[in-house]
Amino acid sequence: MFTGIVEETGIVKNISKTGKTLVLAIQAKTIMDDMRLGDSISVNGVCLTVTSFKQNEFSADVMPETFKDTSLSRLTNGSLVNLERAMAANGRFGGHFVTGHIDGVGTILSRKPIENSISLEIEIPEAGTHLVLEKGSIAIDGTSLTIFETKSRSICVSIIPHTTLESIVGKKQVGDIVNLEFDMMAKYFYSFMNREADKNQSSKITPSFLKDNGFY
């Protein structure tokens, strides 16, 4: 579990590609302090497992499903990536609950400086349009952001100067691809409501059935 509060930006130092699998070697500093084999690290919002590490660098595998459904396949040597360690149980919680399981990718449609902020409009997959709402949360490349406007197939978010300095999202340009993770609570609530609706439709015990059989 992550918070969407990026700890630092790392640099991709090497990419080993075999078919639709990758091994990423990423240079970092802050997150290396207490790193152990098997740790979960959010890389541009994708939860990856540390398979090896040395001073100021760690490696992680990217499997075919992640290769297909995220923007990690577009990384090149020298790419900057957002990094966050998994949330400690005794740590201060900021941002929102982020799992590191990407729901799809979005495309930057517009980028507008507005006083001290940068406004981004991002096209989102049609399958996720029911999971966004104004003032709701979304993780973009692992960065927890607040949605300030929704449209039929896009959302608008605002990037403050601190986020621009500490993450890669504020540096994105029109046409760039970003990883999206919709709010976990929205996904669970929607799934629960759909299941309840299915149960009600499939049940033969309806108010009219009860009335017809003398229960009230």
TrEMBL record:
Q: Provide the protein name.
A: Riboflavin synthase
List the PANTHER family.
Answer: RIBOFLAVIN SYNTHASE (PTHR21098:SF12), RIBOFLAVIN SYNTHASE ALPHA CHAIN (PTHR21098)
- What is the role of the protein in this entry? Catalyzes the dismutation of two molecules of 6,7-dimethyl-8-ribityllumazine, resulting in the formation of riboflavin and 5-amino-6-(D-ribitylamino)uracil.
Q: Which UniProt keywords apply?
A: Repeat, Riboflavin biosynthesis, Transferase
EC nos? 2.5.1.9
Tell me the Gene Ontology biological-process terms attached to this UniProt entry. Answer: riboflavin biosynthetic process
Q: Tell me which species this is from.
A: Niallia taxi
Q: What are the GO MF terms of this UniProt record?
A: riboflavin synthase activity
- Lumazine-binding domain spans which residues? 1-96, 97-193
- What's the top EC group for this one? transferase
Tell me how this protein assembles. Answer: Homotrimer.
Pathway it works in: Cofactor biosynthesis; riboflavin biosynthesis; riboflavin from 2-hydroxy-3-oxobutyl phosphate and 5-amino-6-(D-ribitylamino)uracil: step 2/2
User: Which positions does the entry assign to Lumazine-binding repeats?
Assistant: 1-96, 97-193
